[in-house]
């Protein structure tokens, strides 16, 4: 018998396949990261901070919440910064749910929700996403009971990319005002879809966002939560005062100061590269899910063989099974050049 809670010892760790992801050897289309480096402005801001001899001080976050509030169109007291959005997800679930509560996490989805729910020993209810209808709204509503404490809306969802429109989320939140609605807007800059405008009307909505994807600094771990002021105050009681690395804040400020670098990348990915890949797959009659983000969940015949062939051609994508166990390949969309390379290799592999 170990020293930890039984259910924790019985769990498995969340271990994404990070080994061997060397960008010098592979085109990394497996983690939905930005596929080109960050701007010179971010690099310079980091160098300047280090050179300024301030690493010996504890972090101080300055006006970052004001900056984010301005960017998101909310009030500064509706923002809390986090160590990546993973920390936001963790804090929100921990602060809302007690052992034995029910949490509705439509599946398949990003692993972190279930991981935290298991740590808290929650009862997990998993309605299934459908390719045609996306978020299983009716099933989610039907699954709500007196024990339901939280509903997750991964928007757009990972791995499928489907989106629940803001009216649907507001409708869900209004129909269950005592249930926390965790809206994960990790891919917001790609989808341009948000419920940030609904925080005053629906105080049970809590949004997580990140600088890991479009902004390109997953290595530095910077995310934020948007919620009603009272929710932010409660979450600040749980978050540590220094949980966010100083360099993450330095980089985020530099990124916000130079938004055009990110905007250009988003425009290339969503406006040019993604339509190219979608066009190719459609032409070849290969099924994929409609996606509002920088990735497509693609279902070729013989996915394992296609995955292996892509790997041999130095392209990494991520196999992800659907609810029936059928494996699709989640492919991150990068620049036009990278997408053309992907298409030409796919032509040989399919
Ligand atoms: C839907 C979703 N939410 C959250 C995250 C985690 O982001 P972060 O790096 O900010 O913790 C990911 C990462 O893949 C994701 O796909």
From TrEMBL:
Pfam families: Aminotran_1_2
Domain (Aminotransferase class I/classII large) ranges: 30-343
InterPro entries: Aminotransferase_I/II_large, HistidinolP_aminotransfase, PyrdxlP-dep_Trfase, PyrdxlP-dep_Trfase_major, PyrdxlP-dep_Trfase_small
Family to which the UniProt record says this protein belongs: Belongs to the class-II pyridoxal-phosphate-dependent aminotransferase family. Histidinol-phosphate aminotransferase subfamily.
Transmembrane segments: none
Keywords linked to the UniProt accession: Amino-acid biosynthesis, Aminotransferase, Histidine biosynthesis, Pyridoxal phosphate, Transferase
Pathway: Amino-acid biosynthesis; L-histidine biosynthesis; L-histidine from 5-phospho-alpha-D-ribose 1-diphosphate: step 7/9
GO annotation terms (biological process): L-histidine biosynthetic process
Taxonomy, superkingdom: Bacteria
Species in which this protein is naturally found: Pseudoteredinibacter isoporae
Protein name: histidinol-phosphate transaminase
Catalytic reactions of this protein: L-histidinol phosphate + 2-oxoglutarate = 3-(imidazol-4-yl)-2-oxopropyl phosphate + L-glutamate
Keyword Transmembrane helix found: no
A GO term, aspect molecular function: pyridoxal phosphate binding
Top enzyme category: transferase
Known EC number: 2.6.1.9
